[in-house]
Amino acid sequence: MVAHIGFLRNLRQLYEGGVTQKRLAEVNGDSQPAISQMLQRARVEAPDVRPGTHGGTAYEVAARCAAGEIDPATMRAELIGWECDKPMAPSAYPDVDDVSPHAEGGFNHQVGRALTHGSSPVRTTT
Predict the structure, then answer these.
(1) What is the DSSP track for 64-85?
(2) What does the DSSP 8-state code read for residue 108?
(3) Where does the record place Polar residues bias (predicted)?
């Protein structure tokens, strides 16, 4: 999974640097629509690595731990210190549902995804 995140990040960075989707498709042996879909996923799943961490998302940090690239203590320290996006202010209108859906790139979603995919080596003890 870590390699795929790295691939998506590189693809996104190349595109943001001016390489066309058509050229990316040619080099990777994919279609332009496939590259477009990968770039959409890359915007959420493969942002730039945050300074002082081992990933661009909480999921990536957990995946790197599961892959043995970082130890569990490092993962926990990075996730504890993770700067989360600020939640939206509630609506002033009582009839409006002001509960925001979890952002796909949000911390809770990312950690939940890591746990669902078995990427977290976190153990609980009783």
Answers:
(1) HHHTTSS-HHHHHHHHHT--PP
(2) H
(3) 117-126
